[in-house]
Amino acid sequence: MLSKYLATIYFCILFGILFVLHIVFAANDNDLMFRSVAVIISIMIFLCGPICVFFESSKERYKFSFMLGMTLSLFLSIGLGWAYNDMSMGIIMIILPILSVVIHSIIKQSPIGYTYGLK
Q: Residue 58's pLDDT is what?
């Protein structure tokens, strides 16, 4: 049963490590490393579904992993919007989740069928 969520767990571990690193770099005024990790985190948030599919070992669970990653991406993109809006509420907290769904929808469908970001 846990194997069903293993790809998402791998994503969360990687995301957590990068999140801690971005805090450490910010606290130590290492601006270049902070910005680099922040960009990687932002990319990971918008590509959460395909990254989870990449970590998934079973083709039968691609759809489940992709959809779980997309759902996780919605919540993470709200947090990203909060961070980009200087830790306050704003319209960006609505725009980024919508952008995340659009990105995931484009990636999920391709001319050859559902690939979930993989060929």
A: 86
